[in-house]
Structure formats: structure tokens, C-alpha cells
Design a protein that fits this description.
This protein has 122 residues and is mostly helical. It is built from five helices and no strands.
Amino acid sequence: MGLSQMFVGAVLSALVAVADGVPVLRERRPGVLASMAGTALAMPVCWNSILNVTGAMGLFSHDLPFVLFPVSWQDTGSGVFTLAGAALLLMLGAGRNDRPRRVAAVAGLTALAALVVDVYFY
């Protein structure tokens, strides 16, 4: 996977994360939305870059033979990296005064956006 393809997918993940955060979680705070967008952008690029540098992209990118949700370990890694990054950034930044359940919901939705975009768009 090339860097341009990773970047386009990551930008799409960021847009989907913010587009889902506003109606689903009723999130309006710019700092939280920026955290969602930033982690949905950066963390899939980090994960896919690790796979590219180590030469493991071929090992992790075999899709599950299930037509409705053809997920692979590479897709799952994007979601897990995004979940960890979003939770950490929210806890240290814009969501530091939020309840833990709220931080988990925002981080989970951000990770879900990254996972779904990764599964279906690149």
C-alpha cells in the first residue's frame, strides 16, 4: 500500500469520525472533534507504515471470507491503534474532565470509523 493511498484513507477516516461524532454522540466541542479527527488521521497511517516498513503488509491483509464484513488483521490494527490513540489523547487533552464512559464512547466511535473505512475503502 502506497503512502498516498494510506493518506487518502486516513483523511476519509477523520472525516467519518467527525461526521459520526456530531449526530451520534452530540459532540460539539472543537477540541474533542479535533482529537477525533487527528487520531483517526494519524493512527491508521502509523499502523500501516509499521506494516510497510517491516514488510508484514502481506501477512496481515488477508480478508475474512465474509462478504458483508471482509475484515483483516490489518484493518483491525488500524482500529486498535486508533482506539488507543484517541483514548490517550482525550484523557490527556480535551476530554480530561469528562466521565470515563464518555471518553470511552468517543474513542470507540473514532476507532469504529477508522476500522470501517479501512475495511471498505482501502
